[in-house]
Amino acid sequence: MLMPRQKTPDLSLPIVGGGQFVLSEEKADLGTIICFYRGLHCPLCATYLKELERLTPDFAERGITTVAVSSDPEDRAADMAKRISASSLRIAYDFPLKEAKDWGLYISTSRGKSSIGIEEPALFSEPGLFLITPQQTLYYMSVQTMPFVRPHFSELLAATDSAIKKNYPARGEYTGELSG
Fold it and tell me: Which pTM value belongs to this model?
């Protein structure tokens, strides 16, 4: 289980349009947002990623980089990049589901074609949103078992502003014994 203030697994994935996203080599002043999404088949993911695309420059102003990640192959990831008109948000692909488990993501099985008529992969991860510090430790995470009711990026942006202003530490770090 990932723990706040502890090092996360590394990620090294190809990016649509060329290049490689390597978490341990990110040069963000304050951190990196990793948005794991279900894949091209998910209409909610497209809407969600459009919002992250729109706010990526605002996060960048604060020293935070962004990347969206799925287990989709390159062609489907490229289709998602087109669908959301990605220009600032990096879209990484070929995320191994074995690594999804390391990140605490839930895995679902295909139900055939989605509501937009695109075939779901046999297996894919459900959404997860992570803010990773420049030291590659976990600052914030939200993991879901369903495609809906996700954290709003505008709220994360506002919370980031507050955390920066107050030098607010990552929470949920206690691992000691509990009574009762």
Answer: 0.97
